[in-house]
Amino acid sequence: MSSNTILIVDDSRVSRMLIRAIITQADPHAEIIEASTGEEALAKVDNLNITIATLDLNMPGIDGLALASKLLLKFPRAKIGLLTANIQEMVRQKAEALGISFISKPITEEKILNFIYG
């Protein structure tokens, strides 16, 4: 049985469904929490222990980088991946400075599984 509690935050329902399907196929026992905004994510994780999170960069309200900073304060050991089609070096550097992974879109099974289990 998996001990992973995985947070998926993306304003695209299709992206959340795709990531959930990839994770569920690889680890049917993982607890998966979905949110469409950073604010919703912060409200949902209040009494949880998040071990892994995938965050979209561009979302309404709090962006993925700001959300990562807030999550790392609460879950300093969490493995966090920033998903984005914005491959600018500045975004990569900000992700690296936070100590989180940069995952370029489009989302693929290989990218998600390499991030989570690699």
Descriptive key words:
Bact_response_regulator; 5-stranded parallel beta sheet; alpha/beta; 118 residues; two-component regulatory system; phosphoprotein; Rossmann fold; 43% helix; 5 helices; Sig_transdc_resp-reg_receiver; Response regulator
Tell me what the structure shows:
This protein has 118 residues and is α/β, with parallel strands linked by helices. It has a single domain, classed as Response regulator (Rossmann fold), CATH 3.40.50.2300. It has helices spanning 13-26, 38-44, 64-74, 89-98, 109-117, and strands spanning 5-9, 31-35, 52-56, 79-84, 101-104. It has a five-stranded parallel sheet, sandwiched between helices. Strand 4 (79-84), helix 4 and strand 5 form a beta-alpha-beta unit. The radius of gyration is 13 Å and the shape is globular. The two termini are 18 Å apart. The model has no long low-confidence stretch (mean pLDDT 94). It holds the Pfam family Response_reg. Residues 5-118 form the Response regulatory domain. Keywords: Phosphoprotein, Two-component regulatory system.
